[in-house]
Design a protein that fits this description.
The chain is built from five helices and nine strands. With 203 residues, it is α+β, with helices and mostly antiparallel strands. The protein has a single domain, classed as 3-Layer(aba) Sandwich (Extracellular Endonuclease, Chain A), CATH 3.40.570. The chain has a seven-stranded antiparallel beta sheet, sandwiched between helices. The radius of gyration is 16 Å and the shape is globular. The N terminus and C terminus are likely disordered.
Length: 203
């Protein structure tokens, strides 16, 4: 497989969705959709992820009044978890950075079986990779018509990991956001096909 410039790829992703905003809060970059009230994707770099920060006092908020994010009321009694995209534990070496992952523009409604199951399994694996390599991580959702209150629920979530050392794509996964959540390893070409986005890529 040819090396793909993931940063260029992901910048061009989802151009058909209206009301987008690009936000960088210092540790990750978000492409946010006010149409869905959800992030389309989040990208961040990781090296030596993990740590001992205590997150018991952290709660999801929206600190950007330009973004029409979800709220606590949207999630209340919904049955969905607030699933981190930029993973909190990845930044547990710095409590200030860790707290910044608790933003509604950095989470998607995920079923408990996805968020606490196969999604978490890969978060742990990727953090292990980061102990010996610098990584670029991009993850997001693909949306249909399902909603809870004011926010749209992704039918699928996906995650791509690229080594910043070798430029090799280490992982490209497709996750079903269901009560029996599963993961499928796919290549990037297949991911683009499934999302239906039209991209002009530099390879």
């Amino acid at each position: 497989m040819k090396t793909i410039s993931i940063l260029i790829l992901i910048t061009l992703l989802s151009l058909t969705v209206t009301g987008q905003s690009i936000v960088n809060n210092g540790i990750y970059t978000v492409n946010f959709s006010n149409q869905y009230h959800e992030p389309l994707w989040v990208s961040y770099k990781l090296y030596h992820g993990g740590g001992e920060c205590d997150r018991k006092t952290f709660h999801f908020i929206n600190d950007n009044d330009q973004l029409q994010t979800a709220t606590n009321k949207d999630y209340s009694k919904s049955g969905y978890d607030k699933g981190h995209l930029a993973n909190a534990e990845d930044f547990a070496f710095d409590c200030t950075k860790d707290e910044l992952t608790f933003r509604y523009y950095n989470c998607l409604p995920q079923t408990p079986n996805l968020n606490r199951g196969v999604w978490k399994t890969y978060e742990t694996q990727i953090r292990e990779w980061s102990q010996t390599d610098s990584l670029l991580i991009i993850c997001g959702g693909v949306f249909g018509n399902k909603k809870i209150k004011n926010i749209t629920v992704p039918d699928y979530c996906w995650k791509v990991v690229q080594s910043l050392t070798t430029k090799k794509i280490l992982f490209c996964g497709w996750f079903t956001n269901t009560d029996s959540a599963t993961e499928e390893d796919i290549n990037y070409t297949e991911l683009l096909k499934r999302t239906g986005y039209q991209l002009n890529l530099k390879q």
